[in-house]
Amino acid sequence: MTYQPVHPAARRRWIWALLAGVMALALAAPALLLAAPLEQSAGEGETLFQQKCVACHTIGGGALVGPDLAGVVDRRDGAWLSQWILAPDKMLAANDPIATQLLQESKGVPMPNLALTEPEVAALIAFLANPGAEAVTQPQAPLAEGDAAHGRALFTGASRLENGGPPCMTCHSIAGLGALGGGALGVDLTKAYETYGGDAGLAAFLNTLPTVTMNAVWSSQPLTPAEQDDLRAFMQEASFAERPPQTVWLLALLATVGVALLLLLAQLIWRRRLVSVRKTMVQRARI
Amino acid sequence: MFNTVLFVVFPYVAVIVAVVLGIHRYRTNRFSYSSLSSQFLENRTLFWGSVPWHYGVILILLTHFLAFLFPTLWGNLLSDRIRLYVLEVTGLALALMTVIGIALLILRRLRSPRVFHVTSNADWLLLFVLLLQVALGFWIALVYRWGSGWYVHTAVPWLRSLLVLDPQIQHVTVLPVLVQLHLLLGFVIVLLFPFTRLVHVVTYPITYLWRPLQVVIWNRRPVRKS
Question: Exposed, middle or buried by CB within 10 Å (0-12, 13-18, 19+), for A39?
């Protein structure tokens, strides 16, 4: 095939077409997005409360990880409350005095950003202002006894989760795993059983996995009730186990050793690379 | 909205530009599809830069693609702790090797006057973006363990959603900033493809497999160094 230089005019046409294409795309992409179905619209406050809040809060049933929310609308300023529910992470980062105090009261477990929209927060506050006569708490059905050994298998991935979710140790470490431990993208779960208020609190958390990060992974592939029981049992057991040692340095060391071996291998495979035909000819010419 | 621009608009623009301009460059300037090798200008440092870099980056990219194409299979592979650890340590070693390789390639272009002379601005940009990208990848793998596992449940759903034109950015906007930067830099590299010598990634000489045989005859055996 011979090389055909393109006529400048043809080239200019190309570039114009390209420019038009890129512009059209840049304009169309946001439109496509807006046309896509929006996330869940403002739901009933009560439904939202059951989905997002009961893991850590009751209304009139006493404090769990978070405070009892009975009368919270009277206790707190309205604007503060909606801001807090909307973006607790930002208020904590800004060292808001009430937020800091709440953080201390909840044993250092921060109120997570629940990714709620403003209408959803308004619906929640409307419900909190008037929750009805009965206390709203977690479902009181007796919790099933989990199998800690199977929970451990689910945690490490030796048994796969039924709905296809990743093993917990992909992102979380916990005491008693040994070797290099679990992941470090998420928090260490060694003390989670105590922090989340034992069986009841942890059960509610595992059932809803209400944080933004967990939601992104688990909303489409939730844990089954049996898996939740087994994991809870394992996490209770693990809360008494030894913490694994810090693994970052061990990993860095292993990687360094690995590189050294690979470079050595490269040297062995290509050790004659510098003995080229040219070099030998040059050498002969010098003699 | 800002996230939408970063994780939806930008990837689409990068891919379209890469494909369209890549084809355009192939049609109008075919002989520029080359790595423009500087092997004749400098050969010693090149070996310790190029060999670790290419073997490392090709294997690591391969795992990124495998996990993207066969997420279930990948998940099953990692379900055993020992296999997970072996894979992660191997990946980390290869990542470190690519960092060393690209750093040496950059130093070589700075230190060898002949190679420095044939290095364009686009080359420098590409080299530094690549260095940043593999260094970030190494750091993420080390600090946010175990990336081989969570990649399949965060970046892969996002990439797949882009592929089927139904963008879902909530999978990646919750990730740490460094990880988001790694994702975006990936598309920056895609964007740089048609403007740089990166085009050589699609010129792997596979025609060697079916081209006619060539008979190479040496007049004399090369003399070994004693």
Answer: exposed
Q: Supply B20's token pair.
A: 């369209």
Question: Which tokens go with A6?
Answer: 């393109």
Report the candidate in A87, A88, A96 with the shortest Cα–Cα distance to residue A118.
Answer: A87
B145, B78 in Cβ contact below 8 A?
A: no
Chain A residue with CA closest to B2: the answer is A30
pLDDT tens profile B65-78: 999 999 999 999 99
Question: Which residues are registered as beta bridge partners of A59?
Answer: A136
Residue of A nearest to B49 (CA): A263
Assess contact for A32 and B165: CB atoms under 8 A.
yes
- Domain A36-135: assigned CATH number: 1.10.760.10
CATH number of this structure's domain B2-209, picked from the four choices 1.20.950.20, 3.30.365.10, 3.90.1150.10, 1.10.630.10: 1.20.950.20
Tokens, residue A48 = 């939202």
Q: Encode pLDDT of A169-190 as tens digits.
A: 999 988 878 778 888 888 888 8
Q: Tell me which of A33, A114, A215 to substitute to probe the interface with B (most B C-beta atoms closer than 10 Å).
A: A33
d(CA A209, CA A211) in angstroms, rounded, equals: 6
Question: Does residue A157 sit at the B interface (CB-CB below 8 Å)?
Answer: yes
Q: Is the pLDDT at B145 greater than 60, yes or no?
A: yes
Interface of B with A in 29-68 (CB under 8 A): 30-31, 43-44, 47-48, 51-52, 55
Backbone phi, psi, residue B136, to 5°: -60, -45
For residues B200 and B35, the answer to whether their CB atoms sit within 8 Å is yes
Q: What is the ipTM of this complex?
A: 0.82
Judged by CB atoms closer than 8 Å, whether chains meet at B149 and A171 is answered as yes
Taking each helix axis from N to C terminus, what angle separates B71-78 and B44-69, rounded to the nearest 10 degrees?
A: 100
- Peptide linkage before B146 cis (omega within 30 of 0): yes
**Residue of A5, A248, A263 lying closest to B52 (CB–CB):** A263
DSSP string, B164-197: TT---THHHHTS-HHHHHHHHHHHHHHHHGGGSG
Output the pTM of the full model: 0.75
Given a cut of 60, is residue A40 above it in pLDDT?
no
Interface contact B144, partner A, CB < 8 A: yes
- Is B25 in the A-facing interface, judged by CB distances under 8 Å? no
For residues B201-206, give the mean pLDDT.
77
Tens-place pLDDT, residues A73-125: 888 888 888 888 888 888 888 888 888 888 888 777 778 878 788 888 888 88
SS3 B110: helix
Interface check A257 vs B, CB under 8 A: yes
Q: Is the peptide bond before A249 cis (omega within 30 degrees of 0)?
A: no
| 3-state secondary structure at position A287 | coil
Looking at the domain A148-238, which fold is it?
Cytochrome Bc1 Complex; Chain D, domain 2 (1.10.760)
